[in-house]
Amino acid sequence: MRSENAPTMSSSLLPAASSPAPSSSSKKEAIFITSLVVLWYSSNIGVLLLNKFLLSNYGFRFPIFLTMCHMSACAFLSYLSIVFFKLVPLQPVKSRPQLLKIATLSVVFCGSVVGGNISLRYLPVSFNQAVGATTPFFTAVFAYLMTFKREAWITYAALVPVVTGVIIASGGEPGFHLYGFIMCISATAARAFKSVLQGILLSSEGEKLNSMNLLLYMSPIAVLVLLPAAIIMEPNVIDVTLSLGRQHKSMWLLLLLNSTMAYSANLTNFLVTKHTSALTLQVLGNAKGAVAVVISIFIFRNPVTFMGIAGYTMTVLGVVAYGEAKRRFR
């Protein structure tokens, strides 16, 4: 047994403890998550820019039919991903009331996507994204009206710059179009309404569906809703599409790519949500909107003003503050 007075080796003579090198598995996971985020950004921004190109610059002025193409691709690719490739377990619909709830969500979802696509005919992508950033405001309003859920006062205070920023951006937007603005606001509100409604309708344990299974069931219902709407409201869509296809050989490729990217945006959003934290997802989501704005300005060369940039910046900062307030005071 060592005596209390026995000399001990100086810590300076001991070999320095080296920090463990990152394992190959953690490196692979980091590369995997980074790849997912890149795909998520590429799909979301890609489908947004292609929508704008088709609806405003290409002469394909059929937002309802375009949304139907998106939903058809989502229905087909969701079925392949879940039933054949088993990316996620299949969650069956267990009752007729549950199916009715899913159908209700599908109709609201259709409205949000169609409204967003219509707004792209009249508004620049940059302003479209600025208005879309107000989703948390509408979510908070609907959550309060439908569930009486109250947040801390500081959380609501963070929504003031969100709305103020859009008002400022609207005043400074050279390409402002009232109808396009109304459709964009309506689409944003419908998107928020759908998220709150989903939490209410599919809240019980037996009825909860992950986003990929929900998309699997919502997409065919959306196609059934959009098909007669396209026939009635866009009666010449087939003739014009065939004519554009003869004039531009890339027309069908663009439609196919656009529709596939619409599904990819949903799939990668699900995977990023699964493999990252809620805070990381929030930060990435806010950054995604800013990246889309910058890229769209470079591609479409739409004029921007200092007031427009200031308004959008204020909105994004308000969204960040709102998310942080919710995280701290829930």
TrEMBL record:
Residues 10-25 have a biased composition (Low complexity). GO terms for cellular component: membrane. Signal peptide: none annotated. It is found in: Membrane. It is a multi-pass membrane protein. The keyword Transmembrane applies. Keywords: Membrane, Transmembrane, Transmembrane helix. InterPro entries: EmrE-like, Sugar_P_trans_dom, TPT_transporter. The keyword Transmembrane helix applies. SUPFAM superfamilies: Multidrug resistance efflux transporter EmrE. Residues 1-25 are annotated as: Disordered. Residues 34-322 form the Sugar phosphate transporter domain. The chain crosses the membrane at residues 30-50, 62-87, 126-146, 153-170, 176-193, 214-232, 252-272, 279-300, 306-325. Its main location: membrane. This is UDP-uronic acid transporter 1. It comes from Turnera subulata. The lineage of its organism: Eukaryota, Viridiplantae, Streptophyta, Embryophyta, Tracheophyta. The gene is UUAT1.
